[in-house]
Design brief:
By secondary structure, this protein is α/β, with parallel strands linked by helices. The chain has twelve helices and eight strands.
Length: 280
């Protein structure tokens, strides 16, 4: 996996929520780093960061069930609760006792739930614009969640236009057309349209309410990175989260929106490398 066009996940793990596609970069024996994507994205957003980190680490990337190239099925549980269990299963499958973990958006809540509720142990945790503090979810997100069955019936062309517009708003400077095409592709064909609305319908804030009061229990080095121009989750939430986690460091990323990996990959990578090599 070296270029944007050949980013492939070649391995499969059968989880409690369906088949998970995953892969790894870097040499075995190097410090392991697990990357978690958010919604409505996939491991593809980590491609540049993953290749950079793989110079000194072994990188594990995966598409959550219901996302990217992983299994999408009618009736599938793709909630935050389910994804937390899947992450815990994967860590066992990979044989990782205390990896470094980097998590974006929805993936941040997954990593936090696995750690606080399921006993997953990390050496350090970097959170990038995570879903962690109430309230969350844009008006559009809440509208779709309340009427997912209606949106699921949209004509494919209208659905494609909606998804493209929605994903576009995650970036501050704007996405390259080829990148936008790749980000929305999993949601367009076959089971993708139903899967897109399914994951929104299951994105219940109660799953973060359940752990929000426990952030003070986090006893590992923690970095909170945030795009200063994030319109999905305001940067003030990042400062609030960092204040709740003992010893956490807050790192604002200038010129980046919610999708920091696309807007400022060099700046984000530099912050992560500094943290992962010498956790607080």
């Amino acid at each position: 996996m070296t270029t944007d066009t050949d980013w492939q996940l070649t391995r499969t793990f059968t989880s409690t929520s369906g088949d998970v596609r995953w892969d790894r970069l870097g040499q075995p024996g190097r410090p392991p780093v697990v990357l978690l994507h958010g919604t409505p994205f996939s491991s593809y957003v980590w491609r540049a960061v993953a290749r950079s980190l793989a110079r000194d680490h072994q990188i594990f990337v995966w598409d959550m069930p219901g996302y990217g190239v992983s299994e999408k099925a009618t009736g599938q549980d793709v909630s935050l609760a389910a994804q937390g269990h899947v992450l815990t299963e994967l860590l066992g499958h990979w044989g990782l006792a205390e990896p470094l973990v980097v998590a974006h958006d929805f993936g941040g809540a997954v990593a936090l739930r696995a750690h606080l509720l399921h006993g997953a142990r990390y050496q350090a945790l970097a959170l990038v614009d995570p879903v962690a503090l109430a309230p969350w979810g844009s008006p559009f997100f809440r509208l779709v969640g309340a009427h997912a069955d209606v949106f699921e019936q949209l004509p494919p062309a209208l659905h494609a236009a909606l998804v493209r517009e929605y994903v576009t708003t995650a970036s501050s400077p704007g996405l390259h057309p080829a990148v936008l095409d790749r980000l929305v592709e999993p949601w367009l064909a076959g089971s993708g349209q139903a899967a897109f609305y399914r994951q929104i319908a299951q994105a219940d804030q109660r799953y973060t309410d359940e752990i929000q009061g426990r952030y003070g229990e986090i006893g590992i080095p923690t970095l909170v990175c945030w795009g200063e121009d994030d319109t999905w989750i305001p940067v003030a939430k990042g400062r609030e989260l960092a204040a709740l986690v003992p010893g956490a460091r807050f790192e604002p990323i200038t010129g980046a929106g919610h999708l920091v990996q696309e807007d400022a990959p060099a700046e984000l990578t530099a912050a992560l490398i500094a943290f992962l090599q010498r956790p607080l």
